[in-house]
UniProtKB/TrEMBL annotation:
Residues 43-141 form the Methyltransferase domain. Pfam families: Methyltransf_25, MethyTransf_Reg, WHD_PKMT. GO terms for molecular function: methyltransferase activity. InterPro entries: CFA/CMAS, Methyltransf_25, MeTrfase_reg_dom_prd, SAM-dependent_MTases_sf, WHD_PKMT. Signal peptide: none annotated. It comes from Solirubrobacter phytolaccae. This is Class I SAM-dependent methyltransferase. The keyword DNA damage does not apply. The lineage of its organism: Bacteria, Bacillati, Actinomycetota, Thermoleophilia, Solirubrobacterales. The keyword Methyltransferase applies. Residues 215-297 form the Methyltransferase regulatory domain.
């Protein structure tokens, strides 16, 4: 296959929490759709790059089978090498063109992910993507497709076109990105007042482009294929392939609070009660510019809003940096969950501890969710709560710690470890060493001794960061 721009300019290689089967299953359950077990699923990612998303998924969920495909040969080769070096047995990567996968050549999958693909390819490839999803999904399967949305895309297109014109004389992709960013930085520093409509729009969009790394500008904003879609257009395209809309993987996009107070019933009225029309009109009202849509086989009726009945099937956790509630059952639930932060607690365990009536607790949890302080999950997190006698860091974390400061936790969160000694410590946590052995080997590696109390504090912190396996 010919070289692609992803061979020439590499993209970031980190996971996207909103694509994890736990998140997709949660969205499906909130909308009344029964998903496959997200922790023993077969998962396909189309456009996986160097595999950062699927490597993290496979490392965090041993019962899951992760398969990644990408058109670019260089990233796929790196992903394949990483599988060998980390020692993963539940991940594999293949170089492939999505246009060759429309008959489901890779088999059936419970979850299919396409992040940053739809709308960033030629039109026929977008069509092939949806055909591949349809052919590859199991009957109960769930898929994720992100795309640039309208009408917010119109303003981003203006900035894209301005940047491309400013960089018109540059020859290479990176040079074009750097020249375009020169303009974005200028606009950020010298735009007209926020009191002016145009200035306010620049103030919302330009900083994102001015501060973006060059590789992101190359691929996300300045590439040859860049086609934002209206939601109704996307839904119609999906329906043409026998696929129906479930909800948004950005969980807080599910909330009617995104609309102005009291407007939601009027939007439903304007939409004549049609779900697709409601979503489309909501985008018009809020100038939405990006969607992370969850879809499934057509004919499975998804509810428009989160159900208290479905909330009782989920696990619940406090969001990072969330402020507590002051009074009421929501405050009581927050207090219990906060004591276990950031772990997720089953609804039943929470109900028993609080002695609450099920529907009342479900409504309280949904209230906390709508106010962006509580987060639902399809199941519990697989990570050690305490370091244990012979602590074991995840294989992925040990591999990443040996290569730099950035790593991914078992909770699918990015962790940056600047201190070299801390990274060496992580590489030593392979489950074979007790505290004395860790101290001795750490001293040999870094040249100074760490006391037992300091070691224990560091191990507890690693457990808190979800870097230790159970």
């Amino acid at each position: 296959m010919p070289e692609t721009i992803y061979d020439e300019v590499r993209y970031s290689n980190f996971p996207y929490a909103q694509t994890h089967p736990d998140r997709l299953a949660t969205v499906a359950m909130l909308h009344g759709i029964e998903p496959p077990d997200p922790f023993s699923a077969r998962v396909l990612e189309i456009g996986c790059g160097a595999g950062g998303n699927m490597l993290a998924m496979a490392a965090a969920t041993p019962g899951l089978k992760a398969v990644g495909v990408d058109l670019a040969a260089t990233p796929i080769a790196e992903a394949q090498q990483a599988v060998q070096e980390i020692g993963l047995t539940n991940a594999e990567f293949h170089q492939a063109d999505v246009r060759d996968l429309t008959t489901g050549a890779l088999g059936q999958f419970d979850y299919v992910i396409a992040h940053g693909v739809y709308g960033w390819m030629p039109e026929e490839a977008d069509d092939a993507l949806l055909a591949t999803i349809k052919a590859s999904l199991t009957p109960a399967g769930i898929a994720y497709v992100s795309f640039n949305a309208q009408p917010g895309g119109y303003f981003r297109r203006m900035l894209r076109d301005a940047g491309l014109w400013h960089a018109r004389k540059e020859e290479t992709l990176l040079a074009k990105a750097e020249k375009a960013q020169e303009l974005y930085i200028f606009l950020k520093e010298h735009r007209i007042s926020d009191a002016d409509t145009y200035g306010a729009l620049l103030g919302r969009e330009v900083p994102v482009l001015a501060d973006a790394p060059s590789y992101r500008l190359v691929h996300d904003d300045l590439g040859d294929s860049w086609t934002p879609r209206w939601f109704g257009e996307f839904a119609e395209h999906a329906a043409g392939h026998g696929l129906g809309y479930v909800g948004e993987a950005d969980l807080f996009s599910l909330r009617s609070e995104m609309l102005p107070d009291g407007v939601e019933p009027q939007v439903w009225n304007l939409a004549d009660g049609d779900r697709v029309a409601f979503e489309h009109l909501s985008d018009v009202l809020t100038a939405r510019h990006f969607r992370q849509s969850v879809i499934c086989h057509a004919g499975r009726d998804a509810s428009a809003d989160a159900s208290p009945v479905q909330a009782q099937r989920l696990h619940w956790a406090v969001r990072p940096n969330a402020e507590p509630f002051e009074v009421g059952l929501t405050a009581d639930a927050f207090r219990v969950l906060d004591a276990r932060r950031p772990r997720a607690v089953s609804f039943e365990a929470l109900r028993e501890e609080l002695g609450a009536e099920p529907m009342a607790l479900a409504e309280a949890l949904l209230d906390g969710f709508r106010r962006e302080r509580l987060m639902p999950h399809a199941g519990p997190l697989r990570a050690a709560e305490e370091p244990g006698e012979r602590p074991t860091a995840s294989r992925l974390a040990r591999w990443q710690a040996a290569r730099g400061a950035d790593m991914v936790s078992l909770a699918y969160m990015r962790v940056r470890m600047e201190e070299p000694a801390a990274r060496v410590l992580i590489t030593l946590l392979d489950g074979t060493r007790d505290r004395a052995a860790i101290q001795a080997d750490l001293k040999a590696a870094v040249g100074f001794e760490i006391g037992l109390e300091d070691l224990e504090r560091n191990l507890v912190e690693l457990a808190r960061l979800f870097l230790l396996e159970p």
